[in-house]
Amino acid sequence: MKHPIITQATNDIKAARKIWLPWRVLLPWMVFCLAVIVVCDHFERMNMSMPLLMSIGLFAFFIYLKWGLRRQALFWGTIALLMAVHVALIWYIPWTSDWVPAAVTAGVASIDLCLMLFVLAAVEVLCGSQAVAED
Predict the structure, then answer these.
(1) In the chain, where are the structural domains located?
(2) Which DSSP string corresponds to 62-123?
(3) Whether the model pTM is above 0.90
């Protein structure tokens, strides 16, 4: 029998793979990305735009995926902790402004999302607050 943390995280990953984003979501996201890139270019920190956009997109997707837990303080505490880690990584890692292949970026984003899902599953199982999603 699998451990409950692994089972829950695996189910979350399967649910994430089934989500398809419609154009009504992608079009505002593209406008937002353009605004972030323009601001980063204005402050001459163009190397920060890709990690910043990737983190914002991942957290938006992560919160959408686990929206059934929105009434639990533990969920928002975990989100705040993960965001703090991401902010520190974005701020202190020297990022390149050179071209990076899309496969590398997608791979890093996928690994990051899986790690965040495992962390939240571990917190839920260890604290005994397995809430059933409302939606």
Answers:
(1) 4-127
(2) HHHHTGGGTT-HHHHHHHHHHHHHHHHHHHHS----S---HHHHHHHHHHHHHHHHHHHHHH
(3) no
